[in-house]
Amino acid sequence: MKPRERATCEKALGYRFSDEKLLAAAFTHSSYVNEHGGESNERLEFLGDCVLNFIVGVRLYNADKSAAEGSLSSRRASLVSRAPLARIVDSLGVMDMLEVGAGVNKSDFSVKARSDLYEAVIGAIYLDGGLKECERFLDRTFFGTVEPERDYKTELQEYCVKRGIEAVYETEPSGGGFTCTVDVAGAFYTGSAKTKHGAQIAAAKSAIEALP
């Protein structure tokens, strides 16, 4: 990473690295490594995922002393899901700094690929500055900006349990993706997405929005 790019990137992140190699590694995609060698940001992404889950878990634990383990796990999973992390990367405007292989269009990167970059940055900050610096970074970019994603499948399940009924999902391939229909006591609700899980969530969302 060139000095000007490094300065721009650090300004966007709000953190200055002591070890510039860590910053460079965080912004090196596997497609670039396949062509030029070196190490991609995948290991940093793994580490950052661990650190993110830990910090968010501690915050949730301290924020609600009465919450059960299942509730805490569900809230954390919702907060650290791919979509909000990808939106943070978009808002920071750092995708242009990512080194990728020839012919790779960064504007077409998936939600997962963009969220992986955010986690790689967290991993790099952890190795460079420790847990406190990671917390400061999350305070700047994550906490207060990320809202939990609604867990429609869990909401539907809880709705059914209270009424002694059952939600039955049927998912089939459809147009390059999947379509799911959920049967709730004889009423049918449909949703489509690129993945089976996504189609089930879409069908549950349709049900939740329609049911009384």
Describe this structure in words.
- With 212 residues, this protein is mainly α.
- Helices cover 59% and strands 11% of the residues.
- The chain is built from ten helices and three strands.
- It has helices spanning 3-13, 20-26, 30-36, 42-63, 69-79, 82-92, 111-129, 131-141, 152-163, 196-210; strands spanning 167-174, 177-184, 187-193.
- Strands 1-2-3 form a three-stranded antiparallel beta sheet.
- α4 (42-63) packs across α7.
- It is globular.
- The model has no long low-confidence stretch (mean pLDDT 92).
Give the helices and strands, then pairings.
Layout: H1 3-13, H2 20-26, H3 30-36, H4 42-63, H5 69-79, H6 82-92, H7 111-129, H8 131-141, H9 152-163, E1 167-174, E2 177-184, E3 187-193, H10 196-210
Antiparallel strand pairs: 1-2, 2-3
Helix pairs in contact: 2-7, 4-5, 4-7, 6-7, 7-8, 9-10
- Report the count of strand segments: 3
Poorly predicted spans: none
Question: Element order, helices and strands?
Answer: HHHHHHHHHEEEH
Beta content? 5-15%
Describe the sheet with the most strands.
3 strands, antiparallel
- The number of helices is 10
* Euclidean distance between termini CA atoms: 55 Å
The mean pLDDT is 92
Shape: globular
Rg calc: 20 Å
State the secondary-structure class: mainly alpha
Read across the widest sheet, the strand sequence of neighbours is 1-2-3
Helicity, as a percent range: 55-70%
